[in-house]
Amino acid sequence: MDRTFKFADPSNPWKTQFPEVANLNDLAADAKADFVAVKVGDVNGNAVANSIVRTAGVFELKTEDQPLKAGNEYRIPFTGDISQIEGYQFTLGLDPNKVELVDIEYAVSKAENFGVFAREGMITSSWNASPGVLPPAPSKGGQEGLFTLVVKAKADVASLSDVLSVQPDHAGGSVPHRRRLPERRFGDPTTPPLNHPTTWLRP
Question: Residue 202 class from Cβ within 10 Å (0-12 exposed, 13-18 middle, 19+ buried)?
Answer without folding.
Answer: middle
